[in-house]
Amino acid sequence: MSAGEAASAPGVLEGRVVLISGAAGGLGAAAAQAAAAAGATVILLGRKPAKLERLYDRLAQVGPEPVIYPLDLAGATPDDYATLAQRVQDELGRLDGVLHCAADFPGLTPFELADPAVMARVLHVNLTARAWLSQACLPLLRQREDAALVFVVDDPARVGQAYWGGYGVSQQGQRGLLASLHGETAASPVRVCALQPGPMRTALRARAYTHQEDREAVEASRYAAACVTLLAPAGAAHRGTVWAATPTPA
Questions:
Q1: Would you give the end-to-end CA distance of the chain in angstroms?
Q2: In the predicted model, what is the mean pLDDT of residues 119-143?
Q3: CB of 154 within 8 A of CB of 110?
Q4: Are the beta carbons of 231 and 150 closer than 8 angstroms?
Q5: What's the Cα-to-Cα distance from 57 to each of 25, 54, 60, 87, 95, rounded to whole Å?
Q6: What percentage of the chain carries pLDDT values higher than 70?
Q7: For all residues of the chain together, what is the average pLDDT?
Q8: pLDDT at 17 over 90
Q9: Do the Cβ atoms of 11 and 35 come closer than 8 Å?
Q10: CA gap 168, 69 in Å, rounded
Q11: Catalytic residues
Q12: Do 43 and 19 touch, CB atoms closer than 8 A?
């Protein structure tokens, strides 16, 4: 099944519960809407309740009633993630997928001039927080016959260059985390993989490129179908890999 076919199949996520971090962001919001349209109950995790509420209204019109869970990953502790997992268990009874879309990027900065506190926050949100959330959710995911843990990552050839600082470092770290988790879950029902979209028009990317020079970027919604594919059973084909997906046609 192609990404486009996954997105167009109304029931491909029927009955599933998926959690999307950074749900109010460009790709997060697009993926949430596509997942709801495919039949999933979507847990909207983000730090801005007003944006989550607007997204809630859109999702409720196309699929099952979603769930809002406000949480700022920059300050959340492992106990906060444990509480989240327990609430999912108590209120929904299952978790079939996690899609890590939340990211932090302050802009291109020379390493010597980077604010240490800002660098620490970027490393935490993009790597440690994702690891903590994954750790808290794994026991729930293991209870399903088929579950997906999906990381949205950036192109290491681009962000591993000068001035990308903690963001670039965290992207390299996520690949190490992916490899480790895949090694531990390869024989389990949990599929660990990553999605590497191409350039997208998002607020995060705008901190590195001006609109005039960023002619390759496309709307984030054109990668929403790929997110659905990886959360659906068809995602088994990408287990343990980083999928450099192509956007759906405009």
A1: 19
A2: 97
A3: no
A4: yes
A5: 16, 5, 5, 22, 22
A6: 92
A7: 91
A8: yes
A9: no
A10: 28
A11: 167
A12: yes
Give the alpha-carbon dihedral of 41, 205, 155, 233, to 10 degrees. 10
Please compute, for residue 233, the number of CA atoms within 13 A of its CA located in the half-sphere on the CB side.
9
213 pLDDT tier (thresholds 50, 70, 90): low
Sheet architecture: strand order including 17-21:
67-70, 41-46, 17-21, 97-100, 147-152, 190-195, 242-243
Distance between CA 93 and CA 132 in Å, rounded? Answer: 21
Could you tell me which residues come within 8 angstroms of residue 150 by beta carbon, excluding any fewer than 6 positions away?
97, 98, 99, 100, 193, 194, 195, 227, 230, 231, 235
State how far the Cα of 100 lies from the Cα of 122, in Å rounded to an integer: 15
Q: How far apart are CA 106 and CA 222, in angstroms?
A: 25
Long-range CB pairs of 82-90, under 8 A, 24+ apart, other chains included = 82/136, 84/45, 84/133, 84/136, 85/136, 85/137, 85/139, 85/140, 88/17, 88/19, 88/43, 88/137, 88/140, 89/140
pTM: 0.92
- Residue 95 per-residue DSSP state: -
CA distances to 26, 95, 96, 185, 228 from 234, rounded to whole Å, are 24, 17, 14, 18, 9
| The pLDDT value given to residue 200 | 73
pLDDT at 210 over 70: no
Identify the bridge partners of residue 24 per DSSP, sorted by sequence position.
none
